Structure formats: C-alpha cells, structure tokens
Amino acid sequence: xxxxxxxxMKTTLKRLRDSVSKNDVIVEVRDARIPLSSRNPALETxxxxxxxxxxxxxxxxxxxxxxxLCKTRALNSVRAFEETxxxxxxxxxxxxxxxxxxxxxxxxxxCIKRLLQxxxxxxxxxxxxxxRTVKVFVVGMPNVGKSSVMNALRHxxxxxxxxxxxxxxxxxxxxxxxxxxxFEGKNVYMVDTxxxxxxxxxxxxxxxxxxxxxxxxxGRLHNAVVVDYxxxxxxxxxxxxxxxxxxxxNDVSTFLHNAAVHTGKLGKGGxxxxxxxxxxxxxxxxxxxxxxxxxxxxxxxxxxxxxxLEKNLVRRNQRRVCSTRKKA
Length: 328
Ligand SMILES: Nc1nc2c(ncn2[C@@H]2O[C@H](COP(=O)(O)OP(=O)(O)OP(=O)(O)O)[C@@H](O)[C@H]2O)c(=O)[nH]1
What we know:
Layout (H helix, E strand, L loop, with lengths): L6 H13 L5 E7 L9 H7 L3 E7 L1 H4 L8 H22 L6 E5 L5 H22 L3 E7 L5 H13 L20 E3 L6 E5 L11 H9 L10 H15 L14 H12 L10 H13 L13 H28 L1
Parallel strand pairs: 1-2, 1-4, 2-3, 4-6
Antiparallel strand pairs: 5-6
C-alpha cells in the first residue's frame, strides 16, 4: 500500500524515543477531518503512560459551524465535537487515564486559550514540585498544523511573534526543533517536531484521505484518483456542494472536464488537463470550498475494526523485534 515514510521521519521517531522523559508532556496534533485515521500507532508507544493531550486541529474544515471562524460558533462546534466523537474515542482508547482531548482552529484564540490552560495545569504541577525543566513535545502527522498551534500557544501565553515555520505543504519542519519557552518565568518549553506518517498504512482508503487532506505530498497518488474519491464523498453528502464547478455526476472525467471549463483552468492550447484541474480541485477542498465535513466514519464498528488492525500491527512489530534480537 502507498505510504510516505522518508528517512527523516524514522530519525525523528528514534530521537523522540531517546529524548522524551517521564515528566514531559506530549501534545499530539491530529486532523479533525480524519480523527480516526490520523491516529498513529507509532506514537502510541512513545506517549504510553505519559501526560498526553490529543488536539484535533482544523476543526473549521471538519465542522460546519466553525467554518466562518466566528469565535462563539467555532467554540460551540469544538464542544459538540468533544461531546459526540471524543466519548466514542475515549471508550476505545487503550491507554485512557493520562490523556485529554481538545479541538482547535489554530487561529481562533479561544480554542488556543483552552489548550493553554490545560497545558498550564499539566506542566505546573511537576514544575512546582521540583522546579525542573518540563518539555512539551508537539507531535503528529505532516501538515496537521503543529507549527501553527505552537505559534498560537506562544502568542497567547507570551505575546511573542512566530517561532515555528508554517507552510501549506507537508514536510516543512524537517528536524526536531529548538526548544522555546511556553510560560513566562517557568522552565516549561515547547519542542516542534517534523510530521510523522504511519510507517504502514492500515487501510487502503487511508492513503487517499491522507492525500486529500495533504498530510501526504501531492503526486504520491494521481490527483485525479484523489478527486474521484472526493467526488464520491461529496455525492454521498449532497451534489449541490459542487454546483459552482459541475452539474451532478458520478463520473470523475465529466466532473474534471466541467470544472476546467467553468473555472477556465485549462491546459496548453485550451484543452482540459486532468492533472492540472484535479490539483486545483484539491486546493479548493483544502480551503473549505466544498464545506466542512469529517471524512472518517465514526461508527463503533469502524473503531473496532481499526483497533484490531492496530493491535495486529503492534504484535507484528513486536515479533519482528524479538526475532531480530534472537538473530543478534
Ligand atoms: N483551515 C485551517 N488551516 C490550518 C489550521 N492550522 C493550520 N492550518 C494550515 O495548515 C497548513 C500546515 O500548517 P503547519 O503549522 O505548517 O503544519 P505542520 O504540522 O507544522 O506541518 P509539517 O511541518 O509539514 O509537519 C498551513 O497552511 C496552515 O496555515 C486550522 O486550524 N485550520
């Protein structure tokens, strides 16, 4: 199955395993549009029995009422999200005790303030007891908004300018970043990290979702294939979501042709270039042009299926580690 796990991701995982200590806090940023598939089993072992906050970022692209970024409506949406999905999540999580869930839109200060308060609670207790340094590691898949969340936290806490580089394509942060102070007068620091993709894709549909939300670099899958999947999902929701581009259709070629003609995004000589227009449609999706919706099915059955796959993967990895040790 298609995945994207370049060397720097493997190195990051190893460096994190070596550097995260018992007192540190893990902030795992996931994409609210794929709350289930952006779980990364590779991070489960890293965060096991440590204080962890799971942040569902980009709620504005997942929940309709957060779309206009109006403060109260965005917050209500986050609350609704927690009440419905997070309950389901908590029921199925394997290590429940140490983690909390927060939904965010990285440029809505109220969402960030809630996260900041939670981090204050989690880090101050250790800091007060010993005055030792506490690190907050911001981890997650590529392009989920780790750097944006970090910048927003630092701005809300210290009114400081941006420290982490933000980019619209995945793989912008390539190294475990320098530590930056989070709270005035406290030895509490944040660490930005490169996005880590799942070493193994659990379900074929996940790869298409990662490409769609841009967690995976464009070009790993054909853009037209990804748009075909988007079209399928839009048709399930309501074909009126794309009337500005095309009349209702199940056929991706017709859709792309109509979209190219409607938008004037044509290739050389005024012909339709499927890849060009598909790439444009993907950009539109990523800005919320088709509305806000969650791509993962949150049915209990899906959760069970997913957890079974994750458990199998963990067992397979354990067996591999055992046999390597025996050989050595
Ligand atoms: N709509 C929306 N976009 C966001 C949000 N947070 C971040 N973004 C955008 O998502 C893109 C990626 O943000 P980054 O903060 O660079 O993501 P990252 O996880 O640090 O990325 P890598 O370094 O590639 O792993 C940027 O274009 C941001 O502007 C959000 O809450 N909503």
